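Checklist before submission:
- one chain only
- standard amino acids only
- sequence pasted in full

Submission:
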Amino acid sequence: MHGPGSASWLLVTLCAGSGAYCLLRMRSRVEEQRRTAGGEALMGFGMAVMALPATVVQPPRGVWIGYAAVFAAAGLWTAWPARRAPRHLHHVVGALAMVYMSVAMVAAPGGHAGHGGAGVPLVTGALLLYFAGHVLLSGARLAPVGAVVAGGEGVAGGGGGPGGWADRPELVRVCRLAMSMGMLAMLVLMS
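Returned file contents:
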């Protein structure tokens, strides 16, 4: 997934920042929120490490195999609640995308596995379409419909209640949007 230096560092910052916010969300009073935040923190930090420029770190193949195992386990862990609550399917797809990219790094340490010059591999293309759609949908959900505008700034509801930063739904959406954008960028770098 190693891209140009500045793009890689932007990805690292985006993903690590999202992971850090997810750690804050683990302080929520709502159990489901804490459980989901833990998985998203793992995803954010995992993506940040994967996006590090090759000039900084060039992990051995065994690390990528470990990555694939960790994210396969995370995908299985998330798949169990997804059978009752389809909203968890996004997390399963994200974990599987991490497994796919980890396996690509094992097959070709430059991150371009399965690419024989004939275009984008099928799995990469399907994941690109999925995450592009998720980015567009998430962005549309963030745009307030009929929001009250005071002094040029939108007023968001559900903000600084008793849960504080951990339970702000708009920040959760922004975090998920940021991680989907990061995943999309990593997949583009792969193709």
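Reviewer check: Strands lie at 149-150, 153-154.
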